[in-house]
Specification:
The protein is of the alpha/beta class and about 350 residues long. The protein contains ten helices and 16 strands. Helix 5 (about 230-240) crosses helix 10 (about 325-339) and helix 6 packs antiparallel against helix 7. It is globular and about 55 Å long. One of its GO terms (molecular function) is hydroxyacylglutathione hydrolase activity. It comes from Astrephomene gubernaculifera. Its EC number is 3.1.2.6.
Length: about 350
């Protein structure tokens, strides 16, 4: 009996040791990859600056702004002017979209989630614009990789980011969070805390321009993976966006729509609007066209992550009327992770 107990203890210790080694190795590799990405981004462009975690504020006013991003097969393009604000789509990396904003009344310019600096600076230069604000939704390297180089190139530009993630946003100067309201030129900007993808994620809403910048919280026909948050948190975050108007343009940060559509029809196969949208998305991507921005009303009608109340989706997932909406959302998210 003592021998069996000793052997059991030995196996347990070996298991714990191997488990600890596995976790440590994964953590080290994640750190190395993140550092390599940031170093590569900085070395390709301009010198970096140290983080600057300034004091939080409840109200700010940007004196000017500029935004732009890199290039891809889709190309840099203006997606139009709404409510006195022009939005320019700048593709970066493999599937990122960076958004350059210009307030027509003030001539101020801002950039949202600059994955890298060079494409943004090229877009700014081609338009003769300067940069006054750098807006981050969360800390991931493909959303903040251009912060330092852009700040070096445009020292007057303010780096704005989530208060809850202030220690992970390079160069953050202005910290904002849920309920904060500030102004970008003539545009009112409202901030929502939207944790789930990351614990400090925020979303920017500009009602005058019908412009929503959800980062990786909401995608066209999808939502972000839950790297740091729970399904309850993510559903609560998405629920904050649902009351916004149907006409709100969703400027998400990735071109994932075609892949999201392929999944969406598996959990909502009877949705005629979804089938029609999938066909349009497939045709657009076949032509090499972007599918972002989308309209929030269209997302409400076709995005399964926003429709956990729908009886057809519940039935498809084997969930009944008694299930909470967040539980259905969790099932949709789990199914997408396996897809």
């Amino acid at each position: 009996a003592n021998l069996r107990q000793n052997n059991s203890t030995l196996y347990t210790r070996r298991y714990i040791t191997l488990k600890q080694l596995y976790r440590a190795t994964c953590g080290m590799l994640r750190g190395v990859c993140m550092q390599a990405f940031q170093w590569t981004t900085r070395s390709r462009h301009l010198p970096s600056r140290f983080y600057n975690n300034a004091n939080p504020v409840r109200s700010i006013n940007c004196t000017s702004a500029t935004i732009s991003t890199g290039s891809s097969s889709i190309g840099v393009a203006s997606v139009g002017v709404t409510g006195g604000m022009e939005v320019v789509r700048v593709p970066c990396l493999s599937d990122n979209y960076v958004w350059l904003l210009r307030d027509e009344a003030s001539g101020r310019t801002a950039v949202v989630d600059p994955a890298e600096a060079a494409p943004v600076m090229q877009a700014l230069e081609s338009r003769g614009w300067s940069l006054d604000a750098i807006l981050n939704t969360h800390h991931h390297a493909d959303h903040v990789g251009g912060n330092r180089a852009l700040k070096t190139a445009f020292p007057a530009a303010s780096i704005v980011g989530p208060r809850a993630d202030r220690d992970r946003i390079p160069g953050i100067e202005v910290q904002v969070g849920d309920g904060d309201v500030w102004h970008f030129g003539s545009q009112r900007v409202e901030v929502f805390d939207t944790p789930g993808h990351t614990r400090g994620h925020i979303t920017y809403w500009m009602p005058g321009a019908d412009a929503l910048f959800p980062g990786d919280t909401l995608f066209a026909l999808g939502c972000g993976r839950l790297f740091e948050g729970s399904p309850q948190q993510m559903w609560a975050s998405l629920s904050k966006l649902l009351p916004l108007p149907d006409t709100a343009r969703v400027y998400c940060a990735h071109e994932y729509t075609a892949a999201n559509a392929r999944f969406a029809v598996t959990v909502d196969p009877g949705n005629a609007a979804l089938k029609e949208r999938k066909a349009r998305v497939d045709e657009a991507r076949a032509r090499g066209e972007a599918t972002v921005p989308s309209l929030l009303g269209e997302e409400r009608a076709t995005n399964p992550f926003l429709r956990p109340h729908d009886p057809a989706i519940r039935q498809q997932l084997g969930l009944g009327a008694a299930a909470e909406d967040w539980e259905v959302f969790a099932a949709v998210r789990a199914a997408k992770d396996r897809f």
